[in-house]
Design goal:
The structure is a single chain. This protein is about 30% helix and about 20% strand. It is built from nine helices and ten strands. S-adenosyl-L-homocysteine binds next to helix 5, strand 8 and strand 10.
């Protein structure tokens, strides 16, 4: 176990959610943390414009990058602890919300165990932001009484859940599911979800590459999708996808002048 030298100044760590990519979708608090930080450790997926807001900080990418070995989770935790112990104000910046499939919980536990003060600064998670930017209300009354957020990686966990829920009763939101989307479609059909269940894939929401695919479970299983290799995509399954298409069609063609930005996915 590490012992803390109480004579050294201890800084702190803000575990900050950066939202889906558009700097307009950062929280005010996240902006303040970035402006005050001495050091930022960010994931590769965080938009460069967001990282750049930490003007006076040293900035390091610690995420997975194509062609470079990722820094392991425990090495990241050691970096956070060591830097804070040097008296620095550290921002650990993650895409979306730090506690939604972000491993923020592990970092918080490690910081706590090391006696390093930390604060969690929530961010807009892709799980609700990506659908919302594509006009999909994940809990539209009459279409879904709730929603569940799953990872596309863990078949065993989602099989357990799917076996217990009535097909179509809740909206499914699947993160990290793009690569295995065909298997997802077959598994849902095996659990009784009709082939015609509406599906949307929202890619790179809140970035200038934002795009949305709309189809059905059947088409998800069969159609090749023309997606960039490194696209981040959120899959939404359920009748709320159809509601989203209705909302998109109902929108008047003029957009509110104050909003601007590049968040919406059309
Ligand atoms: N902590 C993050 C999720 C990390 S898992 C959050 O709360 O948003 C990474 C997955 O999130 C990606 O594989 C993708 O499924 C989803 N994702 C992240 N950014 C996204 C974006 N801009 N648009 C659509 N999906 C996104």
């Amino acid at each position: 176990m590490t012992t803390i030298d109480r004579r050294t100044p201890v800084g702190h760590v803000w575990l900050v959610g950066a939202g889906p990519g558009d700097p307009d979708l950062l929280t005010v608090k996240a902006q303040r943390c970035l402006a005050e930080a001495d050091v930022v450790f960010h994931d590769a997926l965080v938009a460069p414009e967001v990282v750049a807001l930490a003007e006076s900080a040293q900035r390091f990418s610690v995420g997975k990058r194509v062609g470079r070995a990722p820094i392991g989770q425990s090495a990241i935790q050691r970096l956070l602890i060591r830097t804070a112990r040097r008296g620095r104000r550290v921002v650990r910046l993650k895409g979306g919300d730090p506690f939604v499939f972000g491993r923020g919980g592990e970092e918080a536990l490690a910081l706590g165990a090391a006696g390093v003060p930390f604060e969690v600064v929530p961010g807009l998670t892709a799980a609700v932001t990506a659908p919302a930017l594509a006009d999909i209300p994940v809990t539209h009354r009459g279409a879904a009484s709730g929603f569940v957020v799953l990872t596309g990686h863990d078949d065993a966990a989602s099989d357990t859940l799917l076996a217990r829920m009535a097909p179509g009763s809740l909206t499914l939101v699947v993160l990290m599911g793009l690569r295995r989307r065909r298997q997802l479609a077959s598994r849902l059909k095996r659990h009784g979800w009709p082939a015609a269940t509406p599906v949307a894939i929202i890619c790179d929401a809140g970035t200038r590459h934002a795009d949305v695919w709309r189809g059905t479970l059947d088409r998800l299983a069969r159609e090749p999708l023309d997606l960039p290799a490194n696209a981040a995509g959120t899959i939404v399954v359920g009748d709320v996808v159809t509601v989203g298409a209705r909302i998109a069609a109902a929108r008047p063609h003029t957009s509110p002048s104050a909003a601007g930005g590049r968040s919406a996915v059309r």
